[in-house]
Amino acid sequence: MSRIAVVTGGTRGIGEAISLKLQEKGRRVIANYGGNDAAAKAFSDRTGIEVRRWDVGDHNACLDACAAIEDDCGPIDIMVNNAGITRDATMMRMTFEQWDEVIRIDLTGCFNMAKAVFPNMRTRGWGRIVNVGSVNGQGGQIGQVNYAAAKSGIHGFTKSLAMEGAKYGVTANAIAPGYIATDMLSSIPENVMEKIVAQIPVGRLGQPDEIARGVEFLTSDNAAFVTGSTLSINGGQHMY
Ligand code: NDP
Question: pTM higher than 0.85 for the full model?
C-alpha cells in the first residue's frame, strides 16, 4: 500500500513541488491549504492530488483534519510542515498582531500538526516529519524578527522531536531553504531582489523542485539514519 503523506501549504510554491514529488514517488498525497480555494482547485484539477482546507495555526482544526484523513485514507506516515507566511516590518514598526500571526502559523503550526500525527507514528514504529525552516531562521534578517524567531524555533523543535521519536522509528528533520522563486517573494522590490541574488554564491534564486528533492530524500526509507538534522538548500548563501 502507498504511504500516506500530508503536505501543509501543499497547493502552491514550494509545497506544490513537494506534493508533486511525493506523488511521483508513489505516495498518496493530501495537500492542505489555508484559504486560496481557487489556487487549490486549479492545483487539484491539474495534478489529481486531493486538497483539504484548514488553518495550521488552529490546534483543534489540525487534530480534526488529521483524524478525518486517517479515517478516510488510513494512517499518516509522512508529515511535511511547509505552510508559512511572512508579515515583514522592522522592530520599530512591527505590531503585536504581525508577530503573533507569524508565530502562530509558522511555528505553532508545526507543533499542531506534529501533535496530531506523532502518537500514531510512534505506535506503528515508522514515521517521517519534515519541517520547513528558512535561511533567515539561521542567519536572521532585517524586518523579520517574527519570521526569523519562528523559523529558528522550528530548528530547536525538530531536534527535540527527533530525540523523542528516534527509538520508535520516527525521524524529524528540517529543511532550511534559501531564497526560492515563489509568490512569497513577490512583495520584495526588484532592487532589493537584485541585492539578495548578489549575495547568493551560485548567482540565482532556487527553484521549488530543488527543495522538494530534499524532502523526498528525508521522507524515504533511505533516510532512516538521518534525524534531527537541518538540510540547508540555499545556493551557498549561508554556511555553518
Ligand atoms: P507560498 O506563499 O508560495 O505558499 C504558501 C502556502 O502555505 C500556500 O499553500 C498557503 O495556502 C499555505 N498557507 C498559508 N497560511 C496557511 C495556514 N494558516 N494554514 C494552512 N496553509 C497555509 O510560500 P512558499 O512556497 O514560498 O513557502 C513555503 C515554505 O517555505 C514556507 O514555510 C516558507 O516560510 C518557507 N520558505 C520559503 C522561502 C522562499 O524564498 N520562498 C525561503 C525560505 C523558506 P493558500 O494558497 O490557501 O494561501
Answer: yes
